[in-house]
Amino acid sequence: MKKLASLLIGLLILGGCSESDRYNFKGSGDNWDVFYTVDVTSQDSKEATGKIVYTGKEPSPETIIYSIESTAGASSGNVLVDEGEVLVGKSACEGCAVIQRDEELDVEIKWDGQVEEFVLRNE
Length: 123
Description:
The protein is mainly beta.
């Protein structure tokens, strides 16, 4: 019985250490919508994924160069646009600075000689 009680107490303590927060950032420009999800898994580790969607009136470009910047770092790439969308691959880090709930992320998208900049905010 003591072993069972010790096991349950241990699980409760470990369960309390595994708290994580999910932040859903989004923003729009004249030609693009960006959705960026950040899972803060501890005070110094995170995982992030996202999607960039073309909303312009002209046909979507074949490639873009994008940058999503925060105080904790940046995600960027020169990528192909597939049917008007780009999936921002999963990025992760441990022992790093993490994005905060109330932070604003700066986005820059370049394509076909054009540049659009806007801000992402947590919903």
